[in-house]
Design goal:
Two copies of one chain form a homodimer.
Chain A lengths: L16 H12 L5 E8 L9 E2 L3 H10 L4 H8 L10 H8 L5 E4 L5 E2 L6 E6 H6 L1 H24 L4 E4 L8 H13 L4 E2 L2 H7 L9 H5 L4 H11 L5 E3 L5 H11 L5 E5 L3 H14 L6 E5 L4 H9 L6 E4 L1 H4 L9 E10 L2 E4 L14 E7 L5 E8 L8 E3 L2 E5 L2 E2 L6 H13 L16 E3 L1 H21 L1
Parallel strand pairs in A: 6-7, 6-11, 8-9, 9-10, 10-11, 15-19
Antiparallel strand pairs in A: 1-5, 1-12, 2-4, 3-5, 3-17, 12-13, 14-15, 14-16, 17-18
Amino acid sequence: MYDKIYQGLGQAFKTDFYELTMSAGYFQNNVNALTTFELFIRKLPNNRSYLIFAGLEQVIEYLLNLRFTNKEISFLRKMPVFKYVKPEFFDYLKKFRFRGDLWSVPEGTIIFENEPVLRVTANIIESQIVETFFLSVINFQTLIATKASRVVHSARGKGVADFGTRRAHGPEAGILAARASYIGGCLGTSNVYAGYKFNIPLYGTAAHSYTMAFDSELEAFQKYYATFPETTLLLIDTYDIEEGVKNAIKIGKSLKGVRIDSDNIIKKSRIVRKMLDEAGLQKTKIFATGDLNEYKIDEILKSKAPVDMFGVGTEMVTSRDDPALGGVYKLVEQITDNKVKYRAKFSLEKSTYPGKKQIFRRYAKDGMIKEDLLTLANASRLSDSEPLLKCYIKNGKLIRRLPELAQTRQMTIKNLETLPDKYKNIYKTVPFKVKASPELIQLFKELQRRYFNLKSLRN
Amino acid sequence: MYDKIYQGLGQAFKTDFYELTMSAGYFQNNVNALTTFELFIRKLPNNRSYLIFAGLEQVIEYLLNLRFTNKEISFLRKMPVFKYVKPEFFDYLKKFRFRGDLWSVPEGTIIFENEPVLRVTANIIESQIVETFFLSVINFQTLIATKASRVVHSARGKGVADFGTRRAHGPEAGILAARASYIGGCLGTSNVYAGYKFNIPLYGTAAHSYTMAFDSELEAFQKYYATFPETTLLLIDTYDIEEGVKNAIKIGKSLKGVRIDSDNIIKKSRIVRKMLDEAGLQKTKIFATGDLNEYKIDEILKSKAPVDMFGVGTEMVTSRDDPALGGVYKLVEQITDNKVKYRAKFSLEKSTYPGKKQIFRRYAKDGMIKEDLLTLANASRLSDSEPLLKCYIKNGKLIRRLPELAQTRQMTIKNLETLPDKYKNIYKTVPFKVKASPELIQLFKELQRRYFNLKSLRN
């Protein structure tokens, strides 16, 4: 389950340098607090009203395997910037493990702006060092799972496969995008590594170069079909699409499908469907590719173009219309010598609630999501609601099994069924109601008052 | 030099599934050609007039290490889709190595639309399988090296550091973005792994959480400074920026710098500079962060705001204003039984020249780049020009040493000095002249004539 996707790569160094200098600063100055950080997404990307949370499996695998190698430690020790840091810090790093707690919403959960969806409580250094890795896997996979869910929604039940690896941000981004887009509802991926490691169905057709490697298109088609008689999808537009259909028709009625890779899917799919039908290939499917996204698929299907399935690449795996997610990881509580100190930000645009929190989700009588309530983590469960955050790691040990990825995908689909349609509009954002409990608001106001009093005393 | 960044990860599976089904198709049908593919970028991203080529080191490392593990082969063998494929194909995969030739322009080369910047000649299966990996590392790193060069250009000699890992498309994208942005001219990165593996200078300051972990901002500052007296950059806007400067001033004149993380760098940097100067901290630098990009930096420096250095994150590592590069990898030549067949595409928008090619770069008398000439690869060298493609791998063996990354960065900077300023305009595209040699045009026309004759015969 916890496949070593990052095995041997120096997990601990996949971080920003300041996490290590801050850690040295805490160590050197004996800051020995039990600290809680929460991760949340400050602002939804354009046209999005919800997000699909993804990336938790990689977070868990990271925490369970996190350690510094001797080579890494000697690299740090030799850096001039650490000249004034006590040697004991490096001995500490040698024994460094994550021994804290991790709470999170499950992958596939629908989440909203500013909800604390993941929470770490640990020694201050342990909770600090993990920040960068957490953000990089969760920002990206959540971005892509969300984008995929939009594409799948637009496809109105017709299948979508991820074909984006070659335009993803490097090979690993291709793998993680395949994983996230499967969570978001895609049927499968072209990424072989993702298929192998995460048990995602693999999809593929053939490239123009395959057709060009033979003396004629017909020969290329016949020989591909002979090798893959049950699964062949022929790419029919290497030279001329009508020629291509004619050659495909020669393969016969058992041909599974044809692929059109074009800018004008609507027009071409109609021509191709008509030719196939007239030749008796009613069962042969039409697979469309070519810089597709949720907006183009919506247009194609609104026009009732006879497309049976979509291969989506660049636009999905880069979330091209808004390619970055602004997840942040903020200090909310710190316990030193059994004294709890709550932490919050009070700036106008960037206020954050203090303290360890829980999210309670309320449903309407018809089972649809109604609103979310943020409370302090120790608030008692509300009768008509579901607490979203669950404990996954306790004192450094995994205490909750993760589902197989196919189950997570099913869960996402089920969750999306409980989301009212208005939030699924791909063209505009509809704000969702996230309320804070009276206790949380009171705590925030108290801290704010104390902070501004302090400030006015200083001035 | 060839660090195992992907070690143990199943290199061969970092590919699209169709590369493997096409390979099985070639194998099964005894297609045994020596094949040449070329990689080129079909369309420059918005507002770009040039690209900085990057990613070659990862391509070379991949080719030298490419093999299928036994586990991978048995995974494929069990897939229903391969049911009709001869078992000999899987024995072939067991012994599969890249034994072909790789030609490429060096990393840091300035390249333009539709130039064949990388070329593979190998057995058809070897040259096909590598497509996806090539595209995913070169598309991404070229995208980011280019974006970084724009940001660095805007910064007019003030330093730029990459701070983007947390918003990159996963941990590896953060590492590759750090590498590419260093090639593109950044001074360094916050990514520790990239610093360690590629010998890139590491930069970092501290986070708001660091300040919040202490009882007062002044205490946080004093303790950070005590740990890092020579390198401390204090983040001064956790609570109130003027309070922050006052506390920073208490550290004294040897304070290296302060960081402002804000939406309004112009206004705030002026306030901060004035306060620092009045307190005698003229040597303390101002470091700015906060969703910066080439456009914002241009604005900041046009207004003469007193910023000394920039930390750039999200916008650079995702190339946010245009987050994907359309690199493609196309068949151009195929030799079967000593007979050469040239391959090209003739569609209106997507024509490609046939045959193995070379790029000759011509310079004006003042040393500035004038134009590029595409020729067939065996064309003799033109007296006033430089051939850009060089042979790196011959028969599967590395024959050319790669430079250290710092040298590649220097080379990029030198190359950019020979690029006329008009192409560096960050707001608009200026087309660059890429000509084709008469021989190349003739060959294209011959093929085109033959192709359209054939087509009219068929109709």
